[in-house]
Write a structure and sequence with these properties.
The chain has 444 residues and is an alpha+beta fold. It is built from 15 helices and 18 strands.
Length: 444
């Protein structure tokens, strides 16, 4: 795969941008998770459910569309105002205040009241004449008409009713053309509108949760930034890791030109550097037929294994790395287990040529499926990673997928390895493989 054009047109992000996006993604996820569990979102969701409910919308429509004239309050108030304005009723209450009426009614309870039916007695008594004249008056007739009548009873009941606080509130409400704006429902809608403008709610609604699929599916189980002085202070060990204690961990191979130096070519200063040096050294070398033999080498380098750091299956292995110096040196970041295969090259720098792939055994033969990577400068920092899921292996450089295969899916624990080496067909030179940090994530 040639990444030149993908890098040029931004499909392959620069390492700086990739790191920024990872930080932003984590910050966004933490914010999303905080909002997801917040009382604010619970309130928002409850208000959404309430406002969108059929009952809420029906009530809103009724409150906004109902006419005041269609209400009981209007009918009561209209009838009361009509009675209040009735001249006869007004006169009836004025007559009740008349002293003569009270006098007449009091006299009516006395035995002497019968004298009002005696014309002679009335004629002879000015007092009886006055009372008799009142009895014949229009005022008294009006009093008799209304006293204890249905109309007055209705008037009194309405007067009492319309002057209660409850009626006044209801009448003020229904007579107000903007009555809906005075309701709790309106305030509920206002609160919902306010929350819809809330930055956290807006962020949550606009978030595509698929962005967080990695965070959601993986959990970090190992993270090493090499912030210690010596290799022995960490979990990494020099040399290879073998099941058998009889096998030397620090050794080289006959077909290589460097002596692996037991960690002496490893430097730590906030990153791990494996140095390949042009210097003579004598080291154990593995001979396929004779086992370990001593051999003189022109160069030194190193192998570092992470068996004690992390050995697991399924997940994602990632390292930020760069390769500087001579291109006549090979470097590799790989995964291996208790056997030669599977052997996953997360990244292999073959003398300046990059490749990713996996060795596996099929039908008794070792096979290698891989992809060559062109178009990037290995001297620059990049994230090299492999995702190992239930179905396949997927390689990435920064944000870009560069290879995948389902030809093999290991079902055993593997651990990370770093080494620099010089094949016998290469001239050799001095070089550095630098590892800024290593991360391992497990599938949840």
């Amino acid at each position: 795969m040639n990444l030149f054009w993908k890098r040029l047109f931004g499909k392959l992000q620069s390492t700086e941008r990739y790191e920024e996006e990872k930080k932003q993604l984590l910050a966004d996820f933490n914010r999303y998770a905080a909002v997801r569990e917040s009382d604010l979102l619970k309130e928002y969701n409850a208000l959404i459910e309430k406002v969108k409910s059929a009952d809420f919308q029906a009530n809103k429509k009724a409150l906004k569309s109902r006419k005041y004239k269609d209400t009981e309050e209007y009918r009561d108030m209209h009838k009361f105002e009509k009675l209040v304005a009735d001249r006869d009723i007004i006169r009836f209450y004025e007559i009740q205040k008349n002293g003569t009426l009270a006098e007449y009614l009091a006299f009516k309870q006395k035995p002497e009241f019968e004298k009002l039916n005696d014309p002679k007695a009335v004629k002879e008594s000015p007092e009886l004449t006055r009372l008799k004249n009142f009895e014949k008056s229009d005022d008294y007739k009006l009093y008799l008409r209304f006293n204890d009548s249905y109309v007055i009873k209705e008037y009194e009941e309405l007067k009492k009713k319309v002057n209660t606080e409850d009626f006044k509130k209801r009448n003020d409400f229904w007579s107000n053309p903007n009555r809906y704006e005075t309701t709790d429902d309106f305030r509920t809608e206002q609160r919902l509108a306010e929350l819809e403008k809330n930055p956290d709610i807006l962020f949550f609604k606009r978030c595509n949760y698929k962005r967080f699929s990695f965070i959601d599916n993986f959990v970090e189980v190992f993270d090493d930034h090499f912030s210690y002085a010596k290799l022995s202070d960490g979990l990494w060990k020099p040399g290879f890791h073998y099941i058998s204690d009889q096998l030397k961990s620090v050794h080289s191979f006959l077909n290589e030109r460097q002596a692996n130096n037991g960690g002496k070519n490893v430097k730590l200063n906030g990153a791990m550097m494996i140095l390949t040096k042009a210097e003579a050294a004598k080291s154990s070398a593995w001979h396929p037929a004779r086992g370990f033999v001593m051999k003189d080498y022109e160069f030194t380098s190193d192998v570092v294994n992470g068996y004690n750091a992390i050995h697991t299956n399924k997940g994602l292995f990632r390292a930020k790395m760069r390769f500087t110096g001579s291109t006549d040196v090979c470097h590799a970041f790989w995964l291996v287990g208790d056997h030669k295969t599977p052997h996953i090259n997360i990244i292999k720098n073959n003398g300046g040529k990059l490749e990713v792939g996996v060795y596996y055994t099929a039908n008794g033969n070792v096979q290698y499926t891989h992809e060559l990577i062109k178009g990037i400068n290995p001297e620059n920092w990049y994230y090299y990673e492999v995702e190992w899921n239930e179905h396949e292996l997927i390689w990435y450089i920064n944000n870009l997928e560069v290879f995948r295969t389902s030809a093999v899916n290991p079902n055993e624990d593997l651990f990370p390895m770093f080494n620099s080496f010089i094949p016998e067909n290469m001239k050799g030179g001095e070089a550095v493989m630098e590892v800024d940090h290593v991360q391992v994530f497990k599938l949840k």
